[in-house]
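Ticket #4471: structure export looks truncated?
Reporter: QA, pipeline team
Priority: medium

Steps to reproduce: submit the single chain below to the structure queue and open the exported record.
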Amino acid sequence: QVQLVESGGGLVQPGGSLSLSCAVSGSIFSINHMGWYRQAPGKQRELVAFINSGGSTNYTDSVKGRFTINRDNAKNTVTLQMNSLKPEDTAVYYCNADVFSSRWWRDVYWGQGTQVTVSS
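Actual output as written to the record:
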């Protein structure tokens, strides 16, 4: 069993910053890619940022230059530093990880989500 636990969401004013963290625990042999998704009310869930096992990253265009994803392989954590936040960044943010629980068992896991609200 693998669990993803997110933390760090909240309310912030436009132009402010927040940092999200996600800890992966349980039966872990190795972790491939990790990522952050978000879902705003009435919209589909979208990929925000992605980091692979080698540290290469990818971002959706709307957050490039403002958000930074990092991972700590020793601690099995992934973080999302969000700067210059805009009201349109308001959403529930979900952590995602592609985990090998053994050499032969691989699955994709999700966190429970954390609310980020950008408002004055």
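Status: closed, not a bug. The export was complete when the record was re-opened. Leaving a note from the reviewer for reference: Residues 27 and 85 are 35 Å apart (CA to CA).
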